[in-house]
Structures are given as C-alpha cells and as structure tokens.
Amino acid sequence: MGLFNWFTQEIAIDLGTANTLIIHNDEVVVNEPSIIALNRNNPKEVLAVGKKALMMHEKTHESIRTVRPLKDGVIADFNAAELMIRELIKLVYPKKKLFPQAGG
C-alpha cells in the first residue's frame, strides 16, 4: 500500500439501461434504477434519482420531468446522465464535495 492510497478513492460505475451500480471496496454500495427527476423550469435542478425518481415517473406534476438518460445501452441524454451520475456518487460519499458544480 503506497502513500497515495490514503488520498485516493476508487469506485467502479456500471451504467445500465435499467440499473446503475456503483462498486466501492469490492462491494456494491449503490444499486438504483437509471432514472432522474428534473425541474422543468430549471433543468439543472435535480429533484430525485434512482428509486425516488422511479416513483415519480409518469405520476408527477407538470413542472417535474423524469428522464431515463440511457436508451438501448447508449447514453441518449448526456446532461441528464451527468447529473444522475453526480447524484448517485453523492450516495457513496454524502459529506465530501468530489465534483465542483460545472458551469458555475
């Protein structure tokens, strides 16, 4: 174990059309549906991801939009995929700010 192993965190992400898995220290720590709920008035505002967003799917207020960013194993909506990945990583590291907000 080198000195830098104390400063780095390694995770593996399996983006699937149905579910996204995040593996940390050889354990599956996140297994959530690949779906995100966004505010229609402010598309950068994430309202929910995973199971919570799936519960909102097609049952939401008109100001909420649910998106499945992957279609047939390919990223179809890059912005929604990025936001979903950021939120799912926060489930692994809830207190750390790993990624600063893109675009200010």
The order of strands across the largest sheet is 1-2-3
Under CATH at level 1, the class stands as Alpha Beta
The rounded Rg comes to 15 Å
CATH superfamily: ATPase, nucleotide binding domain
Mean pLDDT: 85
Shape annotation: globular
* Structural class by SSE content: alpha+beta
Based on the coordinates given, report the CATH architecture: 2-Layer Sandwich
**Strand content bin:** 25-35%
What is the strand tally? 8
Determine the number of helices (DSSP H or I, runs of at least 4 residues): 2
Largest sheet: 3 strands, antiparallel
The N- to C-terminal Cα distance equals 37 Å
SSE layout and pairings?
Elements: E1 11-15, E2 19-24, E3 27-33, E4 36-39, E5 46-49, H1 51-56, E6 64-67, E7 70-71, E8 74-75, H2 78-92
Antiparallel strand pairs: 1-2, 2-3, 4-5, 4-6, 7-8
Structure description:
The protein contains two helices and eight strands, in the order βββββαβββα. With 104 residues, it is α+β, with helices and mostly antiparallel strands. It has one domain: Nucleotidyltransferase, domain 5, CATH 3.30.420. The chain has a three-stranded antiparallel beta sheet. A three-stranded antiparallel beta sheet has the order 5-4-6. The longest helix has 15 residues. It is globular, with a radius of gyration of 15 Å. The chain starts with 10 loop residues before the first strand and ends in a 12-residue tail after the last helix.
